Amino acid sequence: MTTRKALFRFIRVVTNHALTTRALWIAGLCFFPALTFSQTDEIQVYDGEIAGPGILNLMIHNNFTPKGRKIPDYPGAIIANDSYQVTAEFAYGVTPWMEQGLYLPVTSLYSINHGTTFNGFKIRELFTRPNAHDHPFVYAVNFEFSFNQSYWEPTKHSAEIRAVVGLHSHPWDFIYNPIVDTDYKGGVGNLQYNPSGRIAYNVNDRWAVAAEEYDGFGPLKGFLPLKDQFHEVWATMDYSGKKFLGISVESGVGYGLTAGSDKLTVKWMLSRDLNSKPWRHNLK
Questions:
Q1: Long-range contacts of 159-166 (CB under 8 A, 24+ apart)
Q2: Tell me, what's the pLDDT at 278?
Q3: Which residues are within 8 A (CB) of 162 and not within 5 positions of it... i.e. 6 or more apart?
Q4: End-to-end Cα spacing for the chain
Q5: Is pLDDT larger for residue 2 or for residue 36?
Q6: Does pLDDT of 29 surpass 50?
Q7: Which of 192, 174, 234, 240 minimizes the C-alpha distance to 44?
Q8: Which domains does the chain possess?
Q9: Secondary structure class of 23 (helix, strand, coil)
Q10: What is the tally of helices (H) and strands (E) in the chain?
Q11: pLDDT in tens, 55-100
């Protein structure tokens, strides 16, 4: 199946699950009823796992920054401090080694200088070693293509190439994502190096705790001074099971290490296989 055909089929499947999509979106928002309201649509380390062929998964990303950068990254940009982002990520298993993704909508429910905004959408293709969880060594590569509003990113079009390498040494997982971002300007030297990593301990087949790090060094042609780089360390906890309405949860708190980072960020990600039985069956 070609990537183009897979994308069209993927969009049709997403449309057919519109009601369930709305329900999970609302569930994601309900977990933060009392927050005051990070400047990103996704805070996640990829581990090479994908949806099985024919399976549609929905993940709702919630990111907010109670204590973050108070100066916009460029004129007119959304200010990170006190901002709250919610993004719906659809993932469809095309083959045992390919997953098609769509982030739509990418939104800021609140920011100090723009209020509620639609920030754009992304398309991605993830190619991985089939059944990554069954192998000691994991590898994958992910391509993302973003279509942005001017207050979300400085260019209308941008892209990301994310490699995935990892080691499963049960009960431990060691995952590293070397990532380069581009706005299609300035050639190879202008690629931005923004890696992430994760060390996780699997308590059992449902629960895991992990330490994560997210970095932004700047362009490959010359990294930014340390004070301007982005470095955050995170403590996270994951739950995957069927008792909680079939929803898997990843939550965490991040702390910035440099002046160019957000001092405090919280994430909460809810995901569900939309092909599984109706939610009422999981209440039994």
A1: 159/184, 162/46, 163/139, 164/46, 164/47, 164/48, 164/128, 164/138, 164/139, 164/140, 165/138, 165/139, 166/47, 166/48, 166/132, 166/137, 166/138, 166/139
A2: 56
A3: 46, 141, 142, 143, 144, 177, 178, 179
A4: 38
A5: 2
A6: no
A7: 234
A8: 3-283 (2.40.160.40)
A9: helix
A10: 2, 15
A11: 999 999 999 999 999 999 999 999 999 999 999 999 999 999 999 9
Give the residue carrying structure tokens 């449309």. 15
The 3-state DSSP composition of the chain as helix, strand, coil percent (nearest 5) reads 15, 50, 40
Smallest CA-to-CA distance from 174 within 212, 140, 127, 145 is with 212
Residue 46, SS3?
A: coil
Q: Give 193-221 pLDDT, tens digit per residue.
A: 999 999 999 999 999 999 999 999 999 99
Asked if residues 171 and 197 have their Cβ atoms less than 8 Å apart, the reply is no
Q: Which residues pair with 142 in a beta bridge?
A: 126, 162
Is residue 4 within a helix (H) or strand (E), and if so which, with residue range?
A: helix 3-16
Quickly list DSSP for 120-177: EEEEEEEEE-TTGGGSSEEEEEEEEEEEE-TTTSSSSEEEEEEEEEEEEETTEEEEEE
User: Exposed/middle/buried for 58, CB within 10 Å: 0-12, 13-18, 19+?
Assistant: buried
Place of tokens 């109706």: 278
Average pLDDT, the chain: 88
Instruction: Report the pLDDT averaged over residues 252-258.
Output: 98
**pLDDT tens digits, residue range 42-64?**
999 999 999 999 999 999 999 99
pLDDT recorded at residue 246: 86
